[in-house]
Amino acid sequence: MIIYPAALPNAMDDRLGGGVIRATPDQFLKLLEDVKEGECVLIDVRNPEEYRAEMIDGARNVPVSSIVNELSGVDRNTNLLVYCRAGNRSNRAAEFLKEMGFTNITVLDGGIEALKRHLG
Asked: What residues act catalytically?
């Protein structure tokens, strides 16, 4: 299973515009292979408490309020895969990332909650 509760160890179809793609949970799961291969950076934009309680393997926790500072030195052509709890913060983070000049941003539509429902 990809989602780890705190008790355990440690060609998208819906464009949001400006290089941002909205991925369904199924599409997102396929993109996680790119994270494992180092071709994509997975970013969890929830707060640290939420991240510690439940995360996706390979994710880097960068809360929305820290996006500009934390990712200022990252290559703007890096493929970014962004998620939050329900999708609102990841969409807001995508807007910040676009303003910073990132061009390859994919957000998980419906957030980690949609992914959990999809995995059943």
From this structure: 84
